[in-house]
Amino acid sequence: MKNITLNVSGMSCGHCVKAIEAAVGKLDGISSVEVHLETGKVDVAYEEVKVNPEAIKEVIDDQGYDVQ
Q1: Which CATH number fits domain 2-67: 3.30.70.100, 3.10.20.30, 1.20.1250.20, 3.40.50.720?
Q2: Which of 6, 17, 41, 54 might form a disulfide with 35, Cβ 3.0–4.6 angstroms?
Q3: What value does the mean pLDDT take over residues 27-41?
Q4: 0.70 exceeded by the pTM?
């Protein structure tokens, strides 16, 4: 299990949190997603053999948020 913390801008409310958690959580190999609205960070635990950081970033980007 690997962990990654992403800096995500554009999040402003509870809806943003739910949208990101739901979208990333649907990816195969994700074990947990925790969005920290106040700091603009998203912590993700994932299985490296099933999903990679680029796929996680792409899903967040597709929701309309900027990922660094």
Answers
A1: 3.30.70.100
A2: 17
A3: 97
A4: yes
Per domain, the residue ranges of the chain are 2-67
- 33 and 43 Cβ atoms separated by less than 8 Å: yes
Of 38, 45, 39, nearest to 24 (Cα)? 45
Count the neighbouring beta carbons within 10 Å of the beta carbon of residue 4.
13
Decide the pairing of beta strands 41-46 and 2-9.
Answer: antiparallel
| Per-residue pLDDT at 68 exceeds 90 | no
